[in-house]
Design brief:
Rossmann fold; Helicase, Ruva Protein, domain 3; alpha/beta
């Protein structure tokens, strides 16, 4: 009985904090036409204290989305254009000699912001991409002998272009795994495209205005951490992840020759965190199986390795995830 009361209290707490979600959504709708899934994914990552990898052709408002989100929250935003000649110091900063003070001083790089856009992240070599690893996972940066904590909230949104592969480097699995979600961005609808044209040729575009403070996000993150996850949901998440590792154990024998490696334990953590954030957006103080299913593709698609046979047959990780979701019994 006490558990029921707790869940009711949690739901009321979530509802009381949910006004800011409407503020963010309305603020972003003024600038961005359509792309509801992109906006919702950014909110899930922000609430779950994770990072997002976006994949889509140029011109789909990926850069505009995170810039607008930073403006609405009145947070510090920085953009790093990844190029083949980029150095780790260009991302995290370096030691610079000060003639005035006659000593080396730390010059902080663009990673020191609340919202960091890593544009075309697959254009830089591995040593630059790895410069992001400590920042993304540990929320700190080491320059010389000093370690600096990063501002909160801290969200990295990386983009990659799936079409043009010349001069690109595949992201190391260790780094890809650190993204809470990988979101595939599609084209707008015809009506949305007409609205985009109207906005751009008539000068109707409006600038995003600050509606919230970073502290509001931190408060919401604390509420998300309290959202109840039942043991049945935990078992369901574990079954989904284990089905990517040992498909034959779950009656998915066809997938055994298609998966080279399954999702890591970080996938289980990410599914639970993203499902909590999704429940928060739906104004619930508890996670239901539909929350897990809703975020499964975005959380798992970049964590499953495909065999040569799967790639040769044009099979995608999304198809494998769909098969797993169909097979695993929903609690």
């Amino acid at each position: 009985m006490a558990e029921t009361v707790d869940i009711r209290e949690l739901t009321n707490l979530v509802a009381s904090k949910n006004d800011f979600v409407q503020l963010i959504t309305k603020g972003m709708d003024r600038t961005i036409v359509g792309q509801k899934h992109l906006v919702e994914s950014l909110l899930i990552a922000l609430l779950a204290n994770g990072h997002v990898l976006l994949e889509g052709v140029p011109g789909l408002a990926k850069t505009l989305a995170i810039k607008t989100l930073a403006s609405v929250i009145d947070a510090k935003y920085s953009r790093i254009q990844f190029t083949p000649d980029l150095l780790p110091a260009d991302v995290i900063g370096t030691m610079v000699y000060s003639v005035k003070n006659e000593k080396f001083e730390v010059k902080k790089g663009p990673i020191f912001a609340n919202f960091v856009l890593a544009d075309e992240i697959n254009r830089a070599p591995a040593k630059v991409q790895s410069a992001l690893l400590e920042a993304m996972q540990e929320r700190q940066v080491t320059i010389g002998d000093s370690t600096f904590g990063l501002d909160k909230p801290f969200l990295v949104m990386a983009t990659q272009n799936p079409v043009e592969q010349e001069g690109t480097y595949p992201l190391p699995e260790a780094q890809v795994d650190r993204f809470l979600m990988k979101v595939i961005i599609g084209y707008p609808s015809k009506d949305e495209e007409r609205q985009i044209i109207r906005q751009n040729i008539s000068g109707e575009q409006t600038e995003a205005t600050a509606l919230l403070k970073p502290e509001d996000i931190l408060d919401a993150q604390k509420v998300v951490e309290k959202i109840y996850v039942d043991e049945k949901i935990e078992r369901y998440i574990v079954d989904l992840v284990f089905a990517t590792r040992f498909p034959a154990d779950y009656g998915l024998n066809d997938l055994s020759n298609l998966i080279s490696f399954g999702a890591s334990p970080r996938a289980s953590i990410s599914l639970a965190r993203a499902a909590r954030a999704y429940a928060f957006l739906r104004q619930r103080g508890f996670v239901i199986p539909e929350d897990v299913i809703a975020v499964s593709h975005d959380v798992l698609r970049h964590r499953i390795g495909l065999t040569y046979e799967a790639e040769a047959n044009g099979i995608t990780t999304d198809e494998i995830i769909a098969d797993i979701l169909d097979k695993i019994q929903v609690p």
